[in-house]
Amino acid sequence: MTYCVAIKLNAGLVFLADSRTNAGLDQISSFRKLMVYENPGDRFMVLLSAGNLSITQSVRELLESQQLRDEATGDMLTIWNVRSMFDAARVLGAAVRHVFERDGVALSRSGVDFNISLVLGGQIQGENMRLFQVYSAGNFIEATSETPYFQIGESKYGKPVLDRVITPRTPLDEAAKCALVSMDSTLKSNLSVGLPLDLIVYEKDRFASDKIVSIDESNPYFRMLHDSWGERLRHVFDSIEDPAWDGGDSAVPIRVHSRQAQPLTKVTAPAGALRSNARTMGRLPPAALRQPYHSGTGAGLGTSTADGLATSPMTPLQPGPASPMRPDAGQPSGHQQGMPDAPDRTGQEPQP
Questions:
Q1: DSSP assigned state of 335
Q2: Interhelix angle 53-63/85-109, nearest 10 degrees
Q3: CB 3.0–4.6 Å: which of 114, 148, 153, 205 could bond 2 by disulfide?
Q4: pLDDT band at 271 (very low <50, low <70, confident <90, very high)
């Protein structure tokens, strides 16, 4: 699995990806999920990928040469000559569909889903920065000021800090720090995401970037961030007052009347239910053992009543042949052998 995040800000773009892939618990490798496409002064684009590794590698390879016919002019478009990031996303979607048409049937026969998620962001001369998320069907959506970031892969662990911090006005360096905290939270909670990381920060209208770094476990900034985030998060947690159920001197009691929700209603046992249960307690096996009975004739399964007792009759056991190891096998027992009669369930002696 993987985790990638891309953030679009007024000041620029931030991209961060891990590099771990796995095919089971005992086959873990590192492959880069981040690719940079740059023509200094003209265009700068970054591609993040998640999903089936063979599919993502095929799409990335095709993207550099994939052509898409412009319906208006008839020209063949590639990522190197398109005049907008929207058209670049169209070319990427066409590459995804090309791989699906080529490999989709064979993958399906082998029980492999066509699983791919992509994020493409950057800037082309003559337009503003743009950020797109591309799906496995080749369709895509664009980031907005209301949703200024995209995540692919294991996104749930790192999402809360992004929601609390990131806005379009967030400075670039602060957004890069937030992305790293988001990644650190994911690394802490999910073993399928791992170091090293690739981080890119792009400044608006530069059409190039030199703020590119690969981060491993020895990186001093990331180690500081990891330790500081854990310690200060714990400090903030400890500084929050515990809930005071009895009110007391707390200025923030927890047990107050809600203006929106009705009080929770408890479900109690009806009158007589406990006495009824007491009479049957111990007579029934656990629910998992209350299986329908087979009839001895093999006629089929019996049915069960509401209290778990079977209604189909049981075929009585037939006496078997005498065993040579037991002299008394096949002989009558009890009073038929001269043994004293046992009292019946009423406590009365049997009548002669």
A1: G
A2: 140
A3: 153
A4: confident
Which sign, positive or negative, has the C-alpha torsion 220, 223, 229, 230?
A: negative
Distances (CA, A) of 180 to 6, 14, 121, 161: 11, 10, 19, 10
Which CATH class for the 3-236 domain? alpha beta
pLDDT, mean of residues 60-68: 92
* CB 37 within 8 Å of CB 60: no
Q: Which of residues 49 and 21 earns the better pLDDT score?
A: 49
pLDDT digits (tens, 9 = 90+) for 278-335: 566 656 566 555 555 554 444 444 444 444 444 444 444 555 554 444 445 444 444 4
Check whether the bond before 196 is cis (ω within 30° of 0): yes
Given a contact cutoff of 8 angstroms between Cβ atoms, the answer to whether 109 and 118 are in contact is no
Which secondary structure element, helix H or strand E, spans residue 104, and what is its range? helix 85-109
In the chain the first and final C-alpha atoms are separated, in Å, by 82
Picking from 192, 189, 181, 190, the residue whose alpha carbon sits closest to that of residue 215 is 181
Amino acid at 168: P
- Any bridge partners for residue 130, and if so which? 122
- What confidence score (pLDDT) does residue 285 get? 61
pLDDT of amino acid 18? 97
Contact 125, 84 (CB under 8 A): no
Q: What tokens appear for 164 in the block?
A: 């609390």
CA distance 212 to 97: 31
Is 35 exposed, middle or buried, given 0-12, 13-18 or 19+ CB atoms closer than 10 A?
middle
